[in-house]
Amino acid sequence: MTRPRTLFAALLATAALSLTSCATGSANGEEKDDSKVVTEPDANAFPVTVEHAYGETTIDAEPKRVVTLGWTDQDTALSLGIVPIGATDISWGGNDQGSTPWFDAKLEELGGEQPERLSDTDGVPFKEIAQLQPDLILATNSGITEKDYKKLSKINGGIPVVAFPGDPWLTSWQDSLDLVGKALGRTAIAADVKKQTEASLTQAGKDNPDIVGKSFIFTSLATTDMSKIDYYTVADNRPLLLTDTGMVNAPIIEELSKPGQFYGTLSADRGKELEADVFITYAETDGDLAKFEADPLLGQIPGIKDGHVLASTNKTDALGLSSPTPLSIPYAMEHFMPQVAKAVAGS
Question: In what helix (H) or strand (E) does residue 165 lie, and over which residues does it extend?
């Protein structure tokens, strides 16, 4: 199943630092300057040691050339006033530049340039990363293996790499923010960013009061195979974000969720067991919902049968929820949550 992967001007009002350009080759042969920095690090921030799933990483001095892997760390770094020189291409829900509207808006605010976009279609793009000559790689919410981690750590004679703290793809936006803030020496700014992001989640509950306390199931149905139901577990960032707004996981999802997994699969003949106040799924076209409703098994899912269903076809809106960051969350709260509220109401 494809895993699809939204700040605060006041926080970045610190005097901008003008860094000298470094003529370094990029993946497309063009010169790439150091990361643009518009905030000051904490006093005595370096050296710093960051713990993660593959051990400990020590960063001796403030990073000047930051590359991010996974679908969230580029946002997190940007929210702290650091423009990465390289970042993963957002191939699901992204725009023509492999970016997102929330990243682009913050980038314009900071006066930065688009990072080199790195395709992860065939795995970690080691060669392209090496050409950027990074001095820090952030991968706090990614799927890199220990083998990948060790190989990345040996690039260009050895550079620090910060991986995820627990299981691949299961890092919360809060934990990513903590890790990135520490690695970049900006824990004080990270704390303020966290408070403001949490406030946007609380406000979403206030703006959509009918969702508070309502149970949900978040899935990814496909008309190409209606014999199964792929669902997201309580550990996935989508359900985690919805619960932060005041919603609750359906009891059956609580029961089915297994440690270390962000999704699971059920046979479609169990669809009638998926009781919830609202049923949420991705869809490719506006006509998909009608096909789900007409299917003899999927059509028995209570939310679909009773009209309390959201079949989201806007990948950008959905991406803001599936890959939550301090930049994407406010966007998702504005664009996606009103759709959830309508589905709860049955409209």
Answer: none
